[in-house]
Amino acid sequence: MGMNLTHIHEPAAPCKFDVSPHHGALSVPDLEASIAWYRKHFGFAVEIRFEMPEAGLTGAFIRSGAMRIELFELAGAKPMPAERASVPDDLATHGMKHFAMQVQDAEPVYEYCHEQGFEIALPLMRVGGTTAFYIRDNSGILIEFCEPFAEVGCKETQSGGVRPAIQKGVGA
To answer: The pTM is what?
Structure first.
């Protein structure tokens, strides 16, 4: 599965306040197993534990560097629908599809994931001068590992702005 990237460099729209990422939340069937999985494989540590007894929910915020994930387990929650197991089928349904963790070099991370026996949802792809791949965690949730976006093929326009070329993605 390939992808085309076009670097736009659009100026930010005016906003009355600053925003930055805080966390993404994942519903998991076994909170303790997920905490252990993220700790063992990617160095996450528990930052906060919480409960919502009236909802039958227990959870934790885990963190590795600037990346924070909320994991929660809800009593009686339904399993992930079967159509979510196929990336192309899942793309045909609205909603959040994955979260991404940036790494400086995706290839050794890919090799680690392969050696650990993780489900590789999409293999290494070279996209617009960067490399990415997707795995599923212990709960079947899709995770992308990607390198920083590369500034490739950029040319200055007559107006002085930057207009990068479209880069073709090729599956590896």
So the answer is: 0.80
